[in-house]
Design goal:
Blueprint: H1 12-15, H2 25-40, E1 46-50, E2 61-68, E3 74-79, E4 86-88, H3 97-109, E5 127-134, E6 141-147, H4 155-165, E7 169-176, E8 189-193, E9 197-202, E10 205-210, H5 219-233, E11 240-244, H6 250-255, E12 261-266, H7 269-281, E13 287-291, H8 294-303, E14 310-313, H9 322-331, E15 335-340, H10 343-355, E16 358-366, E17 376-383
The chain binds S-adenosyl-L-homocysteine.
């Protein structure tokens, strides 16, 4: 494990992206472990935290805001915490290096193509954000150019020039976002080059990732986390498995070899479209994907008298819902594997699940987000 403290970052104080910059990685891991262990104490013992060998440049998704500095010069980088001022960032300790290089190249090409960056105050200009997604195993790279309007003069020549400098880019997408809120991507997109998505491999399965679907940002740690989650489920091949909050279908697809049947549910339509494609791509015959709110879907399952043996639940940071947990308790699966990126909401939800007749038996943390305050936890629960 890396012993050293993080190299000083020139914008550390301003950007607010990093935490724990004054302590070693080992100390950071200990802090995260102690925090989660404290929250889980009423329910079960935390067996440890798995960190990264090299906790730098792990982010496979990089998003840069484009704007003008005080002198009117185009800048790209990260919004200063709690503000809309852009802190210029050309290379970040957490982000994929190639993605950062591509963003710098895009900025350097703007002038010769007469592309104006968007100015939030006047509403004038075109380019708002650039998002780069990298398939760490496949090497595929997607660039998403977020523009304020659909009119993008010389877009083909721009893409050609960008690809000349970075032949490793496999697809370029234009996302048209004229909204004034802080949402980076809208649902309007045009594929400018390539197939409009990238693929990557996790735990031996191939996944298609679109611009807007959720995909874990740290694939190295994700593999370890999913392997543990599936181990916790103790599947024998006979179980009906529910993969709730399935995203692009990852956990259910990986578990499908060891289950009789998998039901996957997710709210985001783009993600479920990817989940269906991913299921087909991996030649999986025992998995069905539903687009629905996980809580509503559970209520319907329960009302239909469905039988579910194992539930994987991987909700967003705000945790699961009371409706979901209420139906879970009525469905009475033998096992629940809770994967959480929000320790506080995990503890809140564990309280309800354990009160309802379950016992948390094992838990482990995975550091998916080194040098940030976030940490992922997987908990195994069995019916008492
Ligand atoms: N299990 C996936 C995704 C986890 S992230 C993976 O490991 O890749 C959480 C997912 O929950 C996101 O894909 C998000 O779109 C989805 N989500 C958020 N609220 C939801 C809800 N109410 N019902 C169903 N899915 C929801």
């Amino acid at each position: 494990m890396a012993e050293s403290k993080a190299k000083p970052c020139p914008v550390a104080g301003k950007c607010g992206g990093c935490r724990y910059t004054d302590i070693t990685y080992e100390e950071e891991l200990k802090k995260k472990e102690a925090y989660v262990a404290g929250l889980l104490k009423p329910y079960c013992k935390l067996s440890g935290i798995t960190g990264m060998k090299d906790p730098t440049h792990y982010r496979n998704k990089v998003s840069a805001a484009f704007g003008l500095d005080r002198r009117g010069v185009p800048v790209s980088g990260i919004y200063e915490e709690k503000s809309h001022r852009i802190v210029p960032v050309d290379s970040c300790l957490l982000e994929d290096k190639k993605a950062d290089e591509i963003i710098v190249t895009i900025r350097s090409l703007l002038k010769s193509f007469k592309i104006k960056v968007y100015d939030e105050d006047s509403g004038y200009g075109l380019l708002r954000h650039v998002l780069v997604r990298v398939g760490k195993t496949s090497g595929e790279i997607m660039v998403v150019l977020v523009t304020a309007s659909p009119v993008f003069p010389s877009k083909q020549n721009f893409c050609k020039a960008l690809r000349q400098k970075h032949p490793e880019i496999t697809t370029i997408v234009q996302n048209i976002n004229s909204r004034t809120d802080s949402l980076v991507l809208s649902d309007k997109e045009n594929v400018l080059y390539g197939k409009g998505f990238i693929e990557d491999t996790l735990c031996g399965k191939t996944f298609r990732i679109s611009a807007r679907s959720f995909y874990q940002i740290n694939p190295v740690q994700t593999e370890k986390l999913y392997t543990k989650a599936i181990e916790y489920a103790g599947l024998t091949g006979k179980e009906v498995v529910l993969d709730a909050y399935c995203g692009i279908g990852t956990i259910g697809i990986i578990a499908s070899d060891k289950a009789a049947r998998v039901i996957s549910v997710e709210l985001n339509k783009d993600a479920t479209r990817d989940a269906i494609t991913n299921s087909k791509k991996n030649n999986i015959k025992n998995l069905t994907v539903y687009t629905d709110d996980a809580g509503d879907f559970m209520e319907k399952l329960q009302a239909d008298g469905a039988k579910v043996d194992v539930i994987f639940m991987d909700p967003p940071r705000q945790g699961s819902s009371e409706a979901f947990i209420k139906s879970l308790l009525l469905l009475k699966p033998a096992k629940v594997v809770y994967i959480s990126c929000g320790p506080d909401t995990l503890a809140r939800d564990l309280k309800l699940i354990t009160k309802g007749g379950y016992k948390a038996t094992k838990a482990e943390c995975y550091d998916m987000f080194p040098k940030t305050e976030h940490v992922e936890t997987v908990v195994a629960l069995s019916r008492k």
